[in-house]
From TrEMBL:
Protein name: Phosphatase
Organism of this sequence: Pseudacidovorax intermedius
Superkingdom of source: Bacteria
PROSITE patterns according to UniProt: TAT
Alphabetized Pfam families for the sequence: PhoX (PF05787)
Length: 671
């Protein structure tokens, strides 16, 4: 039967002003507790973090990682199993996307040489960096009204770039993923650049590998000649080229287990032990972790496709119906995807751990979205033999099912999907089942004025302060939403509109299309999550480089309507030479401050990303990522030049951290 209509929510706080201060700004009546910072120990045998680069690298597998990102709270019952309604004890699982190297070592990264000859020379620094990426599982609890983590919990775990993973689904055990580390292609080591996240109805965590391609070293001048034309097409499409992020592969390789050398994606010699070509094929996946089983081996779910995964949001869960996850590929001009399970959901699988994942996530259909100008759209299936995904394709000859998921971007190209303005988080409204996607921003190079379309409609100039460079294109981003036909997750058609356009409140009407004001204007939407305790409440987080002359990054609370609550509109885009081009689009109803208002502003140069809530919705957890990240002006020997000292203050190095937010009267957060 139909679910009872939820009581209408109202936003119950006074919006906060934009801020450039090096502190958290929250509405009156709320308290934030800094709970879990970069380097904090998660084991009783590890000392407190010195935060000056002197901490022993071998302790970092038992410390908080860096750049806290997507996050899920799992309520835990007395028996140490998943209990979604548990209100004051749980496991908080979060991603550690990347690092700010200047703050990790005594004096930044130690290197010698330049160009392709530049190498890291201190293996201990690299070991720290390996451990600082990945995922934390920590037990959290409430003492009185204050949340904290339990340093000695047996559930505490770090998953990082050295943790063994099992490959699962169509790409597992194929020739494409056979490596020196796993000669049968059943396993790989590590996860990296874990950005947004996702959940399953059986109580596990999904972590998504985003900008993994840049970590691999592949010097094209020497490697290209050793590759087939087909391999070069795929390597180019995914951007596997260069010295490798953080130069990990340049540390003298440990030849016994390939600890550093696996970040080399080159064919170094004729023998199998010198052939590293397949390493990149083992990254770029959605990874499933069972937080309640600390000894379990995470699974890379290859059926969900390989790309720059932002997140994987679970759609409506209905007994007897297939499950669905919605996913963005965060790069300019990339796509929006969904995965629909073959098997129908059986609630008896709650608590089934990774075996349930094997059942629902290894077998299904992968689709990519195509948007039409009239507000409709189509899901195109990515499968060998359909939608131009064939051996005869002139750009890329697809060989088999594993080739299609490993090279999902090429399959989506062949199918003719719509290139988007950087798809970040996906979120599903529990009231309507509608799907929201942040399209964070793009620039004039990636989408010139002549390439705007109805779903990516804007081109204009965002004026920064006098010392900063103006940004042209779609610098402030937008939030798109869609509604599956008949409310059915297996539908291959949908209706869409643009829920919100980011903009300065002072911008002209053709730019400030959602009529934002001083209390709710924002730029570059990224994190996006619907409360489960307060159905209909949406949290929106920013990762901005445009409006930063006026404000630090922020989080807003929203009460969105439905697809089609506004209407068709023609906007005037303005080219660099002052000429104009008309672009039609479909714009949602302007929210006003009743349905959108600013809740939080973070410290200097942070990104606000990652949100979860306690079982009763009376606490939320939010991640403050990379405060003070502009290390071009930070002098590691002179703390007075750091741009941020958050959260520890004084002359400290800044640290990414998880905060817990509660309302002083014990009420729900935001409503
Ligand atoms: Fe890691 Fe797309 O943000
Ligand atoms: Ca993000
Ligand atoms: Ca972002
Ligand atoms: Ca970031």
């Amino acid at each position: 039967g139909a679910a009872p209509a939820p009581a209408p929510l109202t936003l119950s706080f006074n919006p906060v002003a934009k801020s450039l201060e090096d502190r958290l700004v929250l509405p009156a009546g709320y308290t934030a507790t800094v709970m879990y910072r970069l380097g904090d120990p998660i084991s009783s045998d590890v000392p407190a973090y010195a935060n000056d680069g002197s901490d022993d690298p071998t302790t970092y597998d038992r410390r908080a990682g860096d750049h806290h990102d997507g996050m899920t709270y799992f309520g835990m019952g007395a028996g140490g199993t998943w209990a979604p309604s548990a209100t004051d004890r749980g496991l908080l699982v979060m991603n550690h996307e990347a690092i700010t190297p200047a703050f990790l070592h005594p004096a930044g990264q130690t290197t010698t040489g330049s160009g392709t000859a530049q190498v890291r020379t201190v293996p201990g620094e690299v070991l720290r960096e390996f451990y600082l990426h990945g995922v934390s599982v920590i037990e959290v609890g409430k003492t009185g009204s204050t949340w904290g983590y339990k340093r000695s919990s047996s559930f505490n775990r770090r998953v990082h770039t050295l943790t063994e993973m099992r490959l699962s689904g169509p790409a597992a055990r194929t020739d494409y993923v056979k490596t020196r580390y796993s000669t049968d292609g059943s396993r790989t080591r590590g996860t990296v650049n874990n950005c947004a996240n996702g959940t399953t109805p059986w109580g596990t965590y999904l972590t998504c590998e985003e900008n993994w391609a840049g970590y691999f070293r592949r010097v094209t001048a020497t490697d290209n000649a050793k590759r087939t034309a087909k391999e070069l097409t795929a390597l180019s499409r995914y951007g596997v080229a260069g010295n490798g992020r953080e130069l990990w592969a340049t540390v003298t390789p440990d030849t016994s287990d390939n600890l550093y050398g696996r970040w080399n994606a080159e064919v170094l010699g004729a023998s199998a032990t010198d052939d590293f070509r397949n390493g990149p094929n083992t990254y770029g996946w959605v990874v499933e972790i069972d937080p309640f089983n600390p000894l379990s081996t995470p699974r890379k779910r290859t059926a969900l496709g390989r790309f720059g995964h932002e997140g994987a949001c679970l759609g409506p869960v209905v007994a007897g119906k297939p499950l669905v996850w919605y996913m963005g590929d965060d790069s300019r001009n990339e796509y929006i995807y969904k995965f629909v399970s073959t098997r129908a959901w059986d609630p008896a699988d709650v608590g089934g751990g990774l075996a349930a994942g094997d059942k629902y996530m290894d077998d299904g259909r992968l689709y990519v979205a195509k948007f039409a100008a009239d507000g409709t759209g189509t899901w195109l299936e990515l499968k060998l033999g359909v939608n131009n995904i064939t051996a005869a394709n002139s750009t890329y000859a697809f060989a088999d099912a594993a080739d299609v998921v490993i090279n999902a971007r090429l399959a989506a190209d062949a199918a003719g999907a719509t290139r988007m303005d950087r798809p970040e988080w996906t979120a599903v409204n529990p009231v309507t089942g509608e799907v929201y996607v942040t399209l964070t921003n793009t620039n004039a190079t990636a989408r010139p004025i002549t390439a705007t379309d109805a779903a990516n409609p804007r081109f204009y100039n965002d004026p920064k302060g006098s010392a900063q460079t103006a940004q042209r294109g779609n610098p402030n981003g937008h939030v798109l939403r869609f509604s599956e036909a008949n409310g059915d997750v297996t539908s291959t058609t949908f209706k869409w509109d643009v829920y919100l356009f980011g903009a300065r409140s002072t911008a002209s009407a053709d730019i400030n299309l959602s009529q934002l004001g001083a209390d709710n204007d924002f730029s570059s939407p990224d994190g996006l999550w619907f409360s489960q305790a307060r159905p209909g409440l949406l949290w929106l987080q920013t990762d901005d480089g445009a409006y930063t002359d006026v404000t630090n990054c922020m989080m807003l609370a929203a009460l969105p309507g439905k697809v089609g609550d506004g209407g068709a509109k023609t906007i005037t885009n303005i080219a660099a030479d002052g000429s104009t081009r008309q672009q039609g689009t479909i714009v949602g109803k302007a929210p006003g401050t009743a349905a959108l208002r600013r809740f939080l502003v973070g410290p200097v140069e942070c990104e606000i990303t990652g949100i979860a809530e306690s079982g009763d919705g009376r606490a939320i957890f939010v991640n403050i990522q990379h405060p003070g990240e502009d290390t071009s002006v930070a002098n590691i020997g002179d703390p007075s030049k750091f741009t941020s000292h958050w959260p520890d203050g004084g002359s400290s190095r800044p640290r990414s951290a998880t905060i817990a937010i509660t309302r002083n009267d014990g009420g729900f957060i935001g409503t």
